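One chain given next:
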Amino acid sequence: MRSHGATILVTCSMIALAGCAGEAKRPDAEIARANALIEQADKSGAQRYAAAELQSARDKLKQVDAAVKDGKGDRALHLAQQASADAELANARAASGEAQRAAGEVQRGTDTLQQEADRDATATNPDGTPR
């Protein structure tokens, strides 16, 4: 009877281990971080300035689930970290693009003011005297 109980215990242990081996630990914290960074990138205009980086982050995040199911926990974590890095890069490029756009607007405004000042400086009254 003892050997039958031991056989059942060993069999149950093997089944439990086989179930664990089929799927790796999901890197939930890093996935949440990547999702938050991707959402932030979307809101910051990354689609306009860093579409490739943003898409890369999304693609890598999709690959995480497949890696977990294949029992590749290290790969899943690595992909989630790469997705975060791609999203951070997209955020940085979006911020840079927005800053360059704003600087361009300021420069155009400055140029317009300079032209108006130059025009006023060279303007004359109807009698030909400077204003």
Observations:
- Residues 35 and 114 are 46 Å apart (CA to CA).
- The domain at 24-112 is CATH 1.20.1270 (Substrate Binding Domain Of Dnak; Chain:A; Domain 2).
- The helical segments are 2-21, 28-43, 46-49, 51-69, 73-122.
